[in-house]
Every structure is written in structure tokens, then in C-alpha cells.
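S.,

Sequence below, as promised.
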Amino acid sequence: MKKFVEGLAVLRVLRHPALLRLWLAQVIYLSVQFTASYAMIVLITNETHSAVMVGLVIIALSLPLVLFGAPAGALVDRLDRRTVLWVSNVVRALATLLFVLALLLSPHQYIFIYILAFF
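The prediction came back faster than expected:
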């Protein structure tokens, strides 16, 4: 019963339009991010048939979280949250554009996939 009541508290928070938009943006971003990560793994798997190359993609996707997660969290707490959201969204859009361009211009150059996966 307690979990049900906590669930209702979340619904009350989501009644605020700004928080609802923020939550929806996060849901969309995470869906796209996980889809892109899965697509990178599938692409490398289909192209190379190498467990090592697939492992490198997974490492490239995971390593930034391990290396920069805690310091970035401490830094973000000191900065203006709106600015951080805007800058991070612009950087994500640029990274996505670079990924698409890299795949269009040289689809068999896997180094670009690894760099962008890390980025």
C-alpha cells in the first residue's frame, strides 16, 4: 500500500507542466540513447563478428560514466541547472549529428563509432 501512495505522489509532481516537460524530455532522451547504444552494438556485431570489437563498444559506452560521473555530478551541482541542461542538450545533438555524418561518409571506419560512443 505504501508503494501505491508513493506512486500517487509522483503523479502529483507531474501535474506541474515544467516538471512534466522535463520528465518527458528525459524519457525521450533515455529511449533514444539506449536505442543508439543498442544500434552501435548491433552494427559492430554484424560488421565484424568479433566479440572483442563488441566489447570495445560496450567499454566505450560505459567508460565515461565511470571516469566522469562523480566529478561531473559535483560540478553540475555548482552550476546553473538551466545552462547545464541547454549545453548538455546541444552537445548531445552535435554528437548525434557527428555520428550520423560519420556513418554516412565512412560507414566502415569503426574508430569513429568508438570515439562517438565514448563522447
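The chain has one domain: 34-118.

Coffee later?
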